[in-house]
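Hi X.,

You mentioned you wanted examples for the new student's onboarding notes, showing what a folding record looks like when two proteins sit in one file. Here is a clean example. The first protein comes first, with its sequence line followed by its structure tokens.
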Amino acid sequence: MSEFAGRSVIVTGAGRGVGRGIAEAFAAAGASVMIGARTLSHGEVARDAIRAAGGRAELAGFDAKSHESCRALVDATLAAFGRIDVVIHCAAEIPHGGLGKVSDEALEAGLASIAKAAWWLLDAARPHLSAAPSGGRFIAIGSVNGTFTVVPNMTAYGMAKAALDAFVRGAAGDVVRENITVNAINPGLVASDNARRVLGDDGLAAYGATIPVGRAGTPADIAHACFYFASQHAGYCTGASLKLDGGASVAARGEGGDKVLQDRLKAQAEQH
């Protein structure tokens, strides 16, 4: 992965979970990484871990619901590194609940942080990505919930992720002549902080056992897919959405992982 040496990578939602895993992987591969994090204390831990491992990272406070914050993140990256080669949008505020059970505020937060932020980030970074010597890369971290599967009490989240996938296809055409590719990665279950909060360690293990490859995904799995889309080898690939779910969406699982997740979400709803 030496080709990433000297390249500048923005990762949103990089204070924890999948975003942090992506940021750490790119830093280890030689990139200069700008961590966009809503909670600065989490971002500081991620930045310091990268630096302790010998990587280069800076931190900017980032609210994915804000157009101005998206512009500011781009400006901070230019100030720190002088260039932008790759933007990876992983930040998301997740609205839980089905139709009629999500407030207007939560619905807007999900749509803004997931889909609108992608629009704002690409728009702000566009001239700088276009100038990237190896080609600019924009990568959106979506979800199978928005494209392939339906999960109870996650309707609003799935809607926002579906909008993100539609954005990727449309925006790819908008910038295809500008030395920029736009692609999406749609993970299934990932063993992240948020998944553990919802499922618990036992539920995560039970769900993972129902996945055909025998486990949940990891942040490293997502990072490795990002490596391809960010690389020079992917210059011919744009407007694509990569399903990355261990075969879960193409296998008949019956009373498997979906039931595990449904039971956990139902229990949480009853507690409220």
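Then the second protein repeats the pattern, sequence line and then tokens:
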Amino acid sequence: MTIDNRIKTMVLLGGFLKQFSQEGRKEADHALNELFYNDFEELIKTVHIYNPWFTENNVRNAIGAIANSLTQEELLNWLSLYITQLDRKKPVRVAVIMAGNIPMVGFHDMLCVLLSGNKFAGKLSSDDKLLLPFISKVIIGIEPDFADYIEFTEERLKNIEAVIATGSNNSARYFDYYFGKYPNIIRKNRNSVAVLTGKESVSEIRSLGDDVFQYFGLGCRNVSKLFVPRGYDFDAFYSPIIGFQEIANNNKYVNNYEYNRTVYLMSSDPTLLDNNFLLLREDEGYSSPIGVLYYEFYDDVNALNQRLENDKELIQCIVSNSKEIKNAVPLGTAQCPALTDYADGVDTMAFLINI
């Protein structure tokens, strides 16, 4: 397959997936619908049986984000950075060990492997083992030659030549021990933060609510900590996000929230704030538990920028509407990464084409 074949396939995949996003509608004449539409619609509605975190809304949000990136314009702009290196003479078999924290979180890695002309050997998380295999069926339905380039396995990975692995800090040590002899990208825990100035509008804080609550806060791009100016009025945060209170209808989320509230109340934590579905707690850490958002006060923007730079290995994404905050994306866009927003800041495509 030429790079043009591969790009065309992904554009067609994006058009198919767009029908299943929150705003999507079924296209009566879409060429792939007769083969795949009904089965995929049923999977989206029932996958929560296997993983209660994967609600229909969250799955459709993830599908919409993928579909929006798979347009010809987006793909060509992205691949123009590498276009002279994408027609490989011999594909490399790349093992991709995936996380399962949010739906299809490993899709970008699979996309990079396939568009770089390499072979994808996917090791799925038990928490997310249904959606990507179905999407791979659609890819092969569009371009049958991809059948020789896509494989999912639950067995031990064999005959691999490179590895991309995503997991916790503990699993990263395991990955490094077993796969260190191969060219590799090994990712660890990261979290995202928001920097507020106290001048945000109600609509801006509502947008921040998406960064906090989408996917129940389980993604590395979900905001798990707020940096706020000293003296910040937390009513300015709590009041606009009241519309997210339905999150407490999810049993797994509310069980975590109530457990953490009990623990903090027993310790008489004086920094604890509560609105009955989200706890705020002052803490210098970045990785807050489910149902909890850490916060920390700052006095000087320059000192804060330096702090964030020093801790960049722990931070996936910074969101802020302040132009004074370096490398920040706007509030509400944390879960809308561009194709060039590589996990942990490591250029996956450059890694793959230079193996």
